Amino acid sequence: MSFYRSLVLTLAQNRLVTSFATKYGMKLGASRFVAGETLDKAIQVVQQLNAEGLVVTLDHLGESVAHKNEAIEATNTAIQIFEAIDQSGVQSNVSVKLTQLGLDIDPSFCLENMDRIAAKAKEKNNFVRIDMEDTPRLEATMDIFHKLLDRYGKEHIGLVIQSYLYRSEQDVTELGKKKVNLRIVKGAYKEPATVAFPNKKDVDMNYIRLVQQHLQNGCYTAIATHDEQIIHTLKAWLKANQIPHHLFEFQMLYGVRNGLQRQLVKEGYKVRVYTPFGKDWYPYFSRRIAESPANTMFVLKNLFKS
Q1: 186 is in an annotated binding site
Q2: Of 86, 115, 116, 131, catalytic
Q3: Per-residue pLDDT of the chain (306 residues; tens, 9 = 90+)
Q4: I want to staple 275 with a disulfide (CB 3.0 to 4.6 A). Which of 23, 102, 243, 254 is the partner?
């Protein structure tokens, strides 16, 4: 972890900083990365993105929960998102984290909650993607996903695979046998060198390899990266191998590389914007600020304007 990122994340945990940011953060720049605190506001943002030719994944922000009532509340919110998508007619699906649905409390309880969400996704002819978290939770996540995949099918439920893990190549091979819809990411958790590539170059090379592997198996692949060099490399490969556009999409975060998102749309690619919302936005916002000094400057400019 870089010194800058470490410093920002440490400051973000300071009580005074947290209090100030929670009170004024949306005005100072959090709205660039977070689509509001309410579902209604998020739907408005989705409508704006759709008007620009972008599709969306809505994600209700929240960290790992410790109580069952919190997990049930998060489950109900995910179901409400599907209802709001259906009623508004926007082009969006939904992303969830299993720790927010009670994975750390009881995997069986989490499965019940996730089953309700997947059932709603199928009822609304929509799609839910399970985010992948750190390796201690990987096997439990895989177990829940495979049980739900058998019930609801690849048209309604998908998974995330992280390219910094050594095991991901084998996971993609196995998931490819079931034609699973995969979102390929580099990975954001701090993992030991015993399970993850320590060098960025190896992570990047594996990322490209996993995307190519899954597409060559004829499986739908979400290429989730802001790395322009990787995008350039994969665009050339996609064209050279005549990969049909209906088999893949590019994915980026709301508020990050906006110009590149729009440029890809102009070039005829499908681009999906991961769009988070909710009252528990501060931890997510802190991570976005920690990623880049430019993001910090954006917030400071808003601070001096106000």
Answers
A1: yes
A2: 131
A3: 454 444 444 444 545 544 444 555 555 567 888 999 999 999 999 999 999 999 999 999 987 899 999 999 999 999 999 999 999 999 999 999 999 999 999 999 999 999 999 999 999 999 999 999 999 999 999 999 999 999 999 999 999 999 999 999 999 999 999 999 999 999 988 899 999 999 999 999 999 999 999 999 999 999 999 999 999 999 999 999 999 999 999 999 999 899 999 999 999 999 999 999 998 877 776 666 655 544 444 444 444 444
A4: 254
Q: What are the beta bridge partners of residue 253?
A: 274
| Residue 66 annotated as binding site | no
Does 162 belong to an annotated binding site?
yes
Active-site residue flag, 131: yes
pTM of the model: 0.89
CATH number (3.20.20.380, 3.30.1330.40, 3.30.1490.20, 3.20.20.220) of 36-305 reads 3.20.20.220
Which residue of the set 32, 129, 183, 272 is catalytic?
183
Residue-range domain boundaries for the chain: 36-305
